[in-house]
Amino acid sequence: MKLKDILLCLLSAVLFVLSLSNIDLEFFAWFAFVPLLFALDGKELLESFGCGFLTGFASFLGALYWIIVAVHTYGYIPVVPSGLILLLLVGYLSLFYGVFALIHHFLRQRLGSQAVFFAPFVWVSMEFLRSFFLTGFPWAMVGHTQYLNLPFVQMADLTGVYGLSFVILLVNATVYLILRRWSLKQFPYRAGAMTVIALLASLVYGYTRIHAIDRKVSQQPVLKVAVTQGNIDQSIKWDESFQKQTLKIYERLSLRVAQERPDLIIWPETATPFFFQDAKEYQPLVLNIPKETGASLLFGSPSYTVKDQRVSHYNSAYLISPGGEIVGKYDKIHLVPFGEYVPLKDLLFFMGSLGEGIGDFKSGKEATLLSLPQTRFGVVICFEIIFPDLCRQFVKKGAEFLVTLTNDAWFGRTSAPYQHMAIATFRAVENRVFIARAANTGISGFIDPKGKIISHGGIFTEEAMNETIRRMNEKTFYTLYGDVFAWVCAACTVFVLGTAALRKRGLKGKGQ
Length: 512
Fold this sequence. Notes:
Blueprint: H1 3-19, H2 34-39, H3 45-64, H4 67-74, H5 79-111, H6 119-132, H7 150-153, H8 156-159, H9 161-182, H10 189-218, E1 222-229, H11 243-257, E2 264-266, H12 283-293, E3 296-307, E4 310-320, E5 326-331, E6 369-371, E7 376-381, H13 388-396, E8 402-406, H14 416-431, E9 435-439, E10 445-447, E11 453-456, E12 463-470, H15 477-481, H16 484-502
Parallel strand pairs: 1-2, 2-3, 7-8, 8-9
Antiparallel strand pairs: 1-12, 3-4, 4-5, 6-7, 9-10, 10-11
Helix pairs in contact: 1-3, 3-5, 4-5, 5-6, 5-16, 6-9, 6-16, 9-10, 11-12, 13-14
């Protein structure tokens, strides 16, 4: 690989990273991968893979550098092994970029330069595969860069975030083709027209939906919700001597928000760093808070069950009524690999959990809805919010809003809490619901059904926030049918690959 190609790949990665939250130069995403497409010109098979892999490696290294903070600072893994864990994850994710480049190379060999317009289909197929393969990690998708671009993101209620990635890659492909043919004074009018039509269609749809959702929201019943952010330092969170002080912090914050008479008060993930179900000393204190505030209380806590003398631990959320009774419980379904459990434990017997606390959780069985007197809602815990198919299951079952509980203290003062919050906005758009987010150290806040962050707190600060949200009952296309668009892109990719495989390689010269 030549130095020029390396620099082009790195330029693509830098532009992509700059477009992510919390830098938020989202405009860069619209041409970020043009340098990569130029780097792939005229390359052989392995060189193409190398270009894609290098771009992915630099992109994910820039996007996910905070992994080392979680693993080293709070997982107590020495810095060198922590760095290796980060590099292994980044290397794995980079394979998807490498496979994209391989497929692009193959199509260029068989179909000529016009094959670049299949790039959006291939890209979406790789992002979709990444979302579920080996438990999935749909973080830093190209579409996520546009979370502040409200008109454009509205299409997510049809296509999910994959529709945004598709259009962005289509624009990248068109810019590449225009620049490539500039010296030949051959403007790709047909390709340009298709891209303009796709952009206009997405924007017209977006503005139309924004106005329709605003009208819909104004007609829906209101609900007063409060979120609290205790800002409990991760280094002392599980310290038994600090447990009572933690509860006193949340009691104080709850009484503060109670002045505005909310229907629901929310504490973050594992806000009670002990087994609430049998904490004889602290359980009465927690149960008394809803009685004092007159509001239902939702909070995170570890829990356990015993069956056949085997203990199973869960990362759970409890709902307490204003009368001080436990009226609902949700057990986290999608656990964090190596943070909450060790995958392939029989093979990886030498590895333990990287997290503090329990560290060996079991998955919950179903998307359980929790009920208030007025409505039902869904709860997702920690990084469950990044999985669109899981979140839509709650709304499909009847949830009228979503709550996400998290503890982003693991990430320190990095871009991770901002990225986590940005991803949550897409779940609001896909399902057209309000989302309340309670985070231990931030970012706590509220998101409306258009994906707009209507209020939020700071990071590593105490927060007590009230918001009036609306109970939404619309079932979007995405809520009902899920990732149909991504499946169509995957099917098109397979079809085009099959068609190209039947062509003789000798035809590649046309349009090269």
